[in-house]
Amino acid sequence: MAEKVVMPKLGATMEEGTIDSWLVDVGEEIEEGDPIVEIQTDKITMEVEAEADGVLLKKLYEAGDTIPVQQVIAYIGEAGENVDDLVDDASSVDKTEAVTPDAKVDTPAEVTATGAGDSDTTEIRRTPIARRLAAENNIDLREITGSGPLGRIQKVDVENAIAQNKQKITPLAKKMAVDQQVDTTSITGSGAYGKIVKDDIIAANRPKEVAAADERVAFKGIRKVIADRISDSYYSAPHVTLHSEIDMTECVKLRKQLLPIIEEAEGVRVSYNEIIVKATAFSLRQNPNINISLENEKEIVYHSDIHIGFAVAVPDGLVVPVLRNVDQKGLGILTKEAKTIAKKARDGMLTPDEMQGSTFTISNLGMFAVDGFTPIINQPNAAILGVGRIQEKPVIINGQVEARSMMTLSLSFDHRIIDGAPAAQFLTDLKNVLEQPYKLMV
Amino acid sequence: MTTYDVIVVGGGPGGYVAAIRAAKEGKKTALVEADFLGGTCLNRGCIPSKTLLKHAEIIEQIEKAQNWGIETSSLEFDLEKMLARKDNVIQTLRGGIKGLLQAGKIDIYEGFGKVIPGKHVIVDEKTELTGEKIIVATGSRPAVPPISGLDKVAYHTTDKIFDIDHIPESLVIVGGGVIGVEFANIFSSLRTNVTIIELGERVIPTEDEAASKALLKSLKQKGVNVLLKHQVKAVHEGENTKEVHVTDKNGKEVVVKAEDLLIAVGRTPNTDAVAELNLAMNGRFIQVNEYLETSETGIFAVGDVIGNLQLAHVASSEGLTAVANLETPTVKMNYAVMPRCIYTTPQIASVGMTETELKEKGISYRVHTFNFGGNGMALATGETDGFSKVLLDEKYGEILGVVMVGAHVTEMISQSSAFMYLEGTVDELANMVQPHPSLSEALMESANALIGKGIHTV
Q1: Alpha helix positions (H), A137-170
Q2: Which residue from A48, A241, B126, B304 puts its CA 20 to 30 A from A139's CA?
């Protein structure tokens, strides 16, 4: 008489179970206690063991099927026995079957191996069939990572390990794979009949090596301060940038003439930077609506003094020392002050006072191959001037092409408190004074 | 005009092997050969030299046996018979190749094949063939260096010396490479006074330094005069002698006189057949990509004409690779495991990288050398000259190179080649059982010594 195998009720709330996988094929001999099927509930995966010796005669369901508890899912009996008659009855749940599932179902998490030789593997969580399969195939359970609950080794894990063992791989490639932790199951070998060779391991491991080359630096210190200030300004003040091309030919001449004079007076060499700073202060005096700040989003301050900050690159960042009362100073004094404070900036010797109180800022990238850019306002200023390089270009003057020293200025302004026209007026005035620098004398 | 799937130009070990493989893959194949089937290897190279080197080996064995209680009267040499045996061997093999080509239904065209644009091959300016693909395997010829007076002197190259009509009393060999030392071995055993003139610091300069030293020692024991770091300045025809003017590294001039002169300073690729194609060149050689295709799509080149290692088995391997790539380039030519053999007594055989190469590439390695003086078989057969050296990768025990000097090493090297090709490591080499007694035990000993488990090593 064939024995029924039913879907066990593993807990008070369990209504149905899903067949995860059959561990035995039809016709296979089984002993009492052998796991025959893995079932899955919403909580756990478990194996159902045979309650009798015999042959698996019939499976009524396939892996993936969900079956109510207590329903017959298979029959075990003697080889050749016909169970077709019984199958019809099985569709009705047999409530009378006195099954005590809790007792019949092996609880894998608590399995301990018997036999002294296994002492090393007794602590390993594995299902009984996994243990048997591993033993039969000479697989060391310690080398397998389980995919079941709590890392329990299941039949499929052992099968994968067997497949991996059978995978053709050269001794050298195997050593390399172990050492470099390359998963060879995902590699298609390029050797004869798919044998994995050295080059396959090298190819499989290549991207890892590339990723390792990145350097990572903590985002802190001066970099963090700069970052915060830049994004505060950029996201709070709507920026508009105006560009204007300036004919610097007269400034070039002026600088040439002033060079020996200032060098004799102050011992420093005047550069375009100071001339531009001076011209900017001159134009700011003409356009007081640019030399302003928005304070706490409550008041607009029209500054009476003109203090100009200028950006200086330092290792790992930039600082903005401030030249004070630029409009009141001659080019000689201004040049000396600018050189002194820039050196202090580069040497990291600036005092906090020397970096505060600007009413307008200039960022000069003229020493690089940069023509124009969109500078970000140095808050609480309302505008910033970006300076590009001076370059000789063909310019048409009175219908004639002439080589002139040209430079682009880029004015970014805070559109909340400065309108487009006044900004344009300021840039135009600045252009005029740079193109006719004798105006500075007035 | 006959049309073929593949036309192979050149019937040497690169060409005929490629033709047979192509035919076996169902391609309608033609082979064009200007001279004899088998190329340099069979007719003027590997095979005739090995035939004569066997004579040298037997002569040396007989001499050695005098001390072992096997006494003979003085030896007499019949060069005519020796060369007849050589010719017999060549003819047997030539016949074999012809039979294989015919069995493969390959059309053989005897004549000089010239490849012209449009993948046409003109044989002896008469017959025109068209090929879907062409494999150029035209080989090389002995290089003749620009030595003053050489054009006025009768000299040998490897093309002619195999048919020398008598054993010369003395012979100067210019070039101490593989060919030079093999001929020195052949003629010194026939009692010829041999002088080798080599420009470099050592004979066989591309091989392992210790192997080179061992060979130099053996040449000197055979009575060969070896002039290293000597440059040939001029040659003159003297009275029944050739006068070779050489200078040493200090510029001091020496005159070496000998009855015959052999020039063995390397080989020049035969590129006449493709002169009209305007192919991209790699120096004097035809340039090919890793699939052995030339700058012209559908035209492949293999063997000596593309340079690299100018060895018959390399040419054959290239020939097979080229055939595999005829339709679509898929198989890259792999030169990593190419054995290199020198058939002197003792022989020299190597595979993989040399120590010099490893140092140049900055690869860290471990090395173990086992001298055959400590090997039972070597002692029993009186062949204790030489050593076996194994070079290992430090991390995985990969076998990076093996060099052997001694008797039978040109056969034994294939064991190391197999290990390298199949990517066995030092552990497998150490565990594999070798027959006893055998020279091959040296490999096992070196491998065990390198993993700290040597038995017969201290």
Answers
A1: 155-166
A2: A48
Better-predicted residue by pLDDT, B398 or A205: B398
State chain A's mean pLDDT as an integer.
84
A373 pLDDT more than 60: yes
- B422 chain-A contacts, CB cut-off 8 A: 170
**Segment A373-386 mean pLDDT:** 94
Residues 285-344 of A with CB under 8 A from B: none
A171 in contact with B at a CB cutoff of 8 Å? Answer: yes
Q: Which residues of B are catalytic?
A: 436
**Cβ separation of B423 and A179 shorter than 8 Å?**
no
- Our separate counts of H helices and E strands in chain A read 11, 18
Same domain, B138 and B278: yes
Q: Give the pLDDT score at A94.
A: 45
Residues B136 and B276 in one domain: yes
- Summarised one tens digit per residue, pLDDT across range A202-214 is 888 876 555 566 7
DSSP secondary structure letter of residue A368: T
Size of interface A-B (CB pairs under 8 A): 24
For the ranges A23-37, B67-81, B263-277, the lowest mean pLDDT is seen at A23-37
Of A171, A176, A179, the CB nearest to B424: A171
Domain that holds residue A183: 125-204
Query: What is the CATH classification number for the domain harbouring A325?
Result: 3.30.559.10
Q: Reply yes or no on whether the pLDDT at A43 is more than 80.
A: no
**Cα-based distances in Å from B427 to A162, A185, B27:** 23, 24, 44
**List of chain B residues whose C-beta atoms are within 8 Å of the C-beta of residue A180:** none
The tens digit of pLDDT for each residue in B366-379 reads: 999 999 999 999 99
- Sheet containing A54-59: which strands, arranged edge to edge? A3-6, A72-77, A54-59, A29-30
Last residue of a domain, one of B216, B249, B265: B265
Contact B396 A170 (CB under 8 A): no
Same domain, B440 and B413: yes
Considering the domain architecture, whether residues B30 and B109 belong to the same structural domain is answered as yes
- Chain A residue numbers touching B423 (CB-CB < 8 A): 170-173, 197-198
> Which of B259, B261, B40 is closest to B142 using CA atoms?
B40
pLDDT at B224 over 60: yes
A415 is catalytic: yes
Give residue-wise pLDDT tens across range A242-293: 999 999 999 999 999 999 999 888 889 999 999 999 999 999 999 999 999 9
Q: What is the CATH number of the domain that holds B298?
A: 3.50.50.60
B175 lies in some domain: yes
Give the tens place of pLDDT for each residue, A147-184.
877 778 888 888 888 877 677 889 899 889 888 888 88
Number of domains in chain A: 3
Looking at residue A90, its pLDDT comes to: 52
Q: Is A346 on the interface with B (CB under 8 A)?
A: no
Q: How confident is the model at residue A113 (pLDDT cuts 50, 70, 90)?
A: very low
What rounded mean pLDDT belongs to chain B?
95
pTM of the entire predicted model: 0.60
Contact B169, B42 (CB under 8 A): no
